[in-house]
Amino acid sequence: MISRRHCLSLLPACGAAGLWGLPGRAIAGAQLEEPLVDSVRTALSSAIANSAPPVPEFSDTESRLAYLRWLGAMSARLKRRKPDWDVRREFLQTVWYESRRAGLETALVLGLIQVESGFRKFAVSSAGARGYMQVMPFWTRVIGDGDAGKLFHMQTNLRFGCVILRHYLERERGDLFLALGRYNGSRGKAPYPNAVLGARRAWEFNG
After folding, report:
1. Would the pLDDT of 27 be above 60?
2. pLDDT of 105 over the 90 cut
3. Burial of 38 (0-12, 13-18, 19+ CB in 10 A)
4. Alpha-carbon distance 132 to 99, whole Å?
């Protein structure tokens, strides 16, 4: 939950609305490498390593229909950035899977991707962050197998990004404003959380 003190960050006062509305623009920062206690390192490594195909599974017909309605709505919104249907479907399906796997709101993850990389698979920031969720290469050494090239693989990048954001949320005891700032390497500063929370609104779905 966002604290009352941080509710003002939802307002587009920093001009984020204009920024995330432009194709190809991004505000990519850099997660900071920090010491991890062994238990946290082990948990994060396990979260990254556990593999499962990002194929939606549903316990009933209504849940499947709800997912298909979401997929249709998101596909229409993303079409300008990813014109190919198969590419768009695979991307959205993987974001849906990985966000839910990490216990994150899918709209939030899509908003973060929009701000971080502008939905560009091979985006690289000036700090060296890579891919859709602009994951810093040191994470592959800390909790992965050390192959930073894998951060350009769609599911690998999304899994790392979602696991890292969940880790920061837990570190900040659920404070989304501070967790987003930590993800961007700008903890406590408003522009980045403002931009992500503003972009999240474009991906919300109530169908």
Report:
1. no
2. yes
3. exposed
4. 13
Residue recorded with tokens 């973060």 = 112
The encoded tokens of residue 194 equal: 């403002």
Q: Is 177's pLDDT higher than 60?
A: yes
Q: How many residues does the chain have?
A: 207
CA angle 202, 206, 207 (to 5 degrees): 120
Find all residues with CB under 8 Å of 192, minimum gap 6, and list them: 27, 29, 115, 180, 181, 184, 186
Q: Which residues pair with 130 in a beta bridge?
A: 124, 135
Q: Does domain 60-206 have CATH number 1.10.530.10?
A: yes
Q: Average pLDDT in the 85-113 region?
A: 96
Cα(36)–Cα(199) distance, integer angstroms = 30
Question: Which amino acid appears at position 116 of this protein?
Answer: E
Per-residue pLDDT reduced to its tens digit, 31-40:
777 777 677 6
DSSP 72-139: HHHHHHHTTT---HHHHHHHHHHHHHHHHHTT--HHHHHHHHHHHHTT-TT-B-TT--BTTTTB-THH
pTM for this prediction: 0.81
Residues 6+ apart with CB under 8 A from 74: 92, 110, 203, 205
DSSP state of 189: -
Residue 44: the pLDDT is 77
Q: Where are the beta strands (DSSP E) in 33-91?
A: none
Distance, in Å, from the CA atom of 134 to the CA atom of 124, rounded to the nearest integer, reads: 7
| Domain map (residue ranges) of the chain | 60-206
